Amino acid sequence: MGLSFQLASAAALLVVAGSTEPIPVQSVLFKQPLEVEHGGVHNIHVEYQGDVDGELTVAYGPCNSGSAQAVHHIVGSTYVGSHHRAARHLDHHERRPTRFVWVTPSTLPAGCLHAFLEGQHVGRSAEIMTKHRRVRRQATFASVADPMGPWFDGVAYLQQKQPNETFVASTKNKRFGILGAGMAGLTTGLMLDSVGVRNWKILESSDRLGGRMLTSYLNGTRPEEGQYHEMGPMRFPYEITDPDTNETFPINDQKMVYQVADVLNKINEGNEELQVKFISWIQSSPNTPVSTYKRRPDGTFPGKTEVATNPDYAEPVVYSNETAAAQAQQALDDFKALTPERIKFYATDLFRAHKQAVEQGLFDWSEVEYLRKVIGTPLNTTDEVTPSQVVWPMWEYETVYFLANKWNTIQGGLSRMPEAFRPIVQDRIQFDSKVFSVQHNSQNNTLSVSYRPRGSNPREVTPTTEQFDYVFNSVPFNLLKFWELPRYSSLMRRAIDRTVFGGAVKVAIQYKTRFWEHLKHPILGGCGRVNIPLVGQICYPSWDINATGPGTMMASYIPDYDATVACSMSDDEHIAYVQRAMVAIHGQVAEDNWTGNWARHCWEHDENHAGAFALPIVPQQQLYLPAFFHTEFNTVFIGEHTSYTHSWVFSALESAARGTVQLLLDLGLVDEAKKVNEEWMARWIQL
């Protein structure tokens, strides 16, 4: 009989009060589960024999229980079959759900599941094995969770709902809308597919995949020609080597990027153009230019090694009060406590590190606030030690990332990864569809999503409206501010209205040759930073080192406030400014190799994003995070801005895993939620 337990003769009949038809005693057959964990969440699978109509109650208790009054606890109740109150189950065959949700108590004696129809016993499972929760080697929610932490506890999530609200599991034929084809939206579709939930559609406002994962291929070249650079994310930190012990350890959270690539490569096996391949990224190189006012005899900028070894280039920082500045810097170092042990902790277990950062108070203070209000550092010294405009918390995950000794990037550009999703989404995506409204329909508990063609005149074009049962919304909050939306909770509405987003602008320039690799002090990959205003970071290509022919470099990358100023320039003005800086840094050779081919992207001017990444200030991180773990009006919010790290590809992927599990639990599809949790490295999710 497999998993089906027919523990009493189906021929034994029972007449239910108010019914004229006999009901088989075992008219409800329990198929699963065979064993459960204390304090866990599980699906109950049943089959029906005969017409089962009326109020169905599932309970757990001693196997010899014959009434609902003699059980350990009630799992849940609902109306099924021809009963007029079973209309909510129209999606189920004959309005009889076959899957239910069981949130088991923290202590559970041995026993059986029982089914009662209008109070009469109509089904009993075999004895169910109970066990205590597995203690995983990695951190679980139980061991690291904090009310201010971001870990998603599926058990607690369901416990906070009314029992009968989550008792009946939905079918998989609900219609799901995914707003946005960035990495969060694309990965959500992939994860839904992985558990057989395929009735989804992506609405994307632009004409491409990837969102802020954007590679510019200059002068109409193809990826394999190497004439590209990244307008969005550029690299993935991979591992750190402790300089004192020579121990090398991975940056574990970034592994999710490689997992997604592996899954895509398997799906696209045999199609070389869609394979995602990683190559080394050179983050640090000896001769990259540095921020200094000293110059070589020929007027060009000295490189990193020269400045470090030649006293003629030494340029010590001068403070108005050297003692106060040293004390302030030491106070910040002591508070952050980024010891070698803490660095490894951040790299290998970011989830615990976040909890510790919350407990330590790192989210309560910016550097400026800490120095001024806790240490009492003079105002001028504070501004000398740390920029006064920096008001985000001291959550130092990025500091740890940039200690990485090994980095990777994607061969042919990071846009190759979202492009690898194309076969998956090609029949379930609509491009150039600019959403402006999401409205909840209380009559049938659905969502109406309205959009217009991108570039159309809203005063002249009639919008299109589609109906969805649920929506994954990955659109940045700074765009949602202007949408027509349901009346979300106060916390969610404030998160939408007030979360701070940073801008960024990047300029890539193609040159006739890779001249920087043939200078007296050759620059072979790497990123440098100069103190020419509005130039910021310069990154030289890590691929095709010493190749002949043209080459493309990231000539300028500036974020935040400076980006706003740079983006106020016209294209021609800005490119001319950056090119003059390249000549100042490298010499006349940069002008001699000028081709006139360039790419510029101002993220705050991008109508599909209106910003580069979330930049929550104190105290937004710990205030708004809990809101994202609640589904409001059938909407789950995903995207890097809803994660506990920001601006990295991993942040978007993490949000997709959390959001997918969250909605599967809303639907009662616990088995599927567990599968996503197990397959997608979602160690921060507890089920």
TrEMBL record:
Keyword Cytoplasm (UniProt): no
Alphabetized GO MF terms: L-amino-acid oxidase activity
Pfam families: Amino_oxidase (PF01593)
A GO biological-process term: amino acid catabolic process
Signal peptide limits: 1-22
Domain named Amine oxidase: residues: 183-658
Keywords carried by this UniProt record: Signal
Record carries keyword Lipoprotein: no
InterPro entries referenced in this protein's UniProt entry, alphabetically: Amino_oxidase, FAD/NAD-bd_sf, Flavin_monoamine_oxidase
Descriptive protein name: L-amino-acid oxidase
Provenance organism: Elsinoe ampelina
